Amino acid sequence: MANQPMLSRYDKLLFVVLFLILAIGVLSIYSVTGGTLERSKTPFYLKQISWIIVGWIIFLVMAWVDYREMARFAYPIYGITLFLLVLVPLIGRTGMGARRWLSVGAFSFQPSELVKIGLLFALAKHFSDHYPNGGLDLKRLLISGSFLFIPFVLILKQPDLGTALSVSIIFISMLFVIGLRSRFLIYSSLITAMLSPFIGQLVWNNLKTYQKRRLFTFINPMEDPTGTGYQIIQSKIAIGSGGLFGKGFLEGTQSQLKFLPERHTDFIFSVLAEQWGFVGVLVLFVLFFLVILWAVDVAVKAKDLLGTLLAVGIIGLIFFYFFVNVGMTLGVMPVVGVPLPLVSYGGSAMVTTLGMLGLLLNIKVRRLMR
User: What is the 3-state secondary structure (H, E, C) of the chain?
Assistant: First the structure.
């Protein structure tokens, strides 16, 4: 098998699963928009399809180029993505109360999405080159944590709490592989417990008023049912009204009559649940479970530590986004603006996610090659 062409080793099941998830996303977006983008004649679902095409191109590139060769340029890649992130508060475009986008002509993108790739490679390269026997000590933890600190603060300032938390997941996921020294683990737990009020205060002070209201609303949505609690209430109604088999394609009342805000982005899961019911939700869960299961297999069987760390970071990100987005729509997690991977409308997130999945496939293929 090692002598077969590389393309023949691509898992057919993975392509089928990803195609089904992407199709679910496009159909859901079409069902609740059908209209056009502001100042544009292109429907949302067609824009999403165009991003999927771009994402597949990036997928193939990331799957083809040896990840070990890409890792040689880990720090320059990290530096470039960080530089783009620094430009956002200076020349970035503002939308929906946040400055998160850079524009090049008619093209706009979120550097916070690209910095995930940069951070992923930088941390994996750093840990694999300086793997400490027995786990990290304080010095090594601070050095590796410095890679996370700058993008975390810059993204939090945009403000974008959900993405800031997601880049932290990359670091935390890799720590599970690298580990902490037992003595340091005890000391760090005590120090973290003592510093948590100050860290919490720092994060709280950097949140906008509407973000603070969202956190309060998570505890009691009925406190402001027509304001900050409106999204969660409408989402729960949409999901609950779907029943076992749903109301049918294009038939959901909450989504079709526009009671549900952000129905093509953050709350796309509610649209799916309303139209296709428990059965549709179960299908989506099974598809994502297959992706995660496949990714875990890649991480466990990776050829080297670098591949394992890259895979674990990607797994952490995908699981975080899926878990938090579904939790948001169900009202069991705060609304922090986290999209549903491969399903929610959005170009930067789509391209980044497909690129990372291509990287996972790269890691698996290199393991099978001599």
Answer: CCCCCHHHHCCHHHHHHHHHHHHHHHHHHHHHCCCECCCCCCEHHHHHHHHHHHHHHHHHHHHHCCHHHHHCCHHHHHHHHHHHHHHHHHHCEEECCEEEEEEECCEEECHHHHHHHHHHHHHHHHHHHCCCCCCECHHHHHHHHHHHHHHHHHHHCCCCHHHHHHHHHHHHHHHHHHCECHHHHHHHHHHHHHHHHHHHHHHHHCCCHHHHHHHHHHHCHHHCCCCCCHHHHHHHHHHHHCCCCCCCCCCCHHHHCCCCCCCCCCCHHHHHHHHHHHHHHHHHHHHHHHHHHHHHHHHHCCCCHHHHHHHHHHHHHHHHHHHHHHHHHHCCCCCCCCCCCCCCCCHHHHHHHHHHHHHHHHHHHHHHCC
Q: Which pLDDT belongs to residue 90?
A: 86
pLDDT average, residue stretch 49-54:
96
Task: Please give the single-letter amino acid code of residue 157.
Answer: K
- pLDDT per residue over 144-188, tens digit each? 889 999 999 899 888 788 888 899 999 999 988 887 655 555 555
256 close to 275: Cβ distance less than 8 angstroms: no
Residues in contact with 242: Cβ distance below 8 Å, sequence separation at least 6, in sequence order:
252, 273, 274, 275, 276, 277, 278, 280, 281
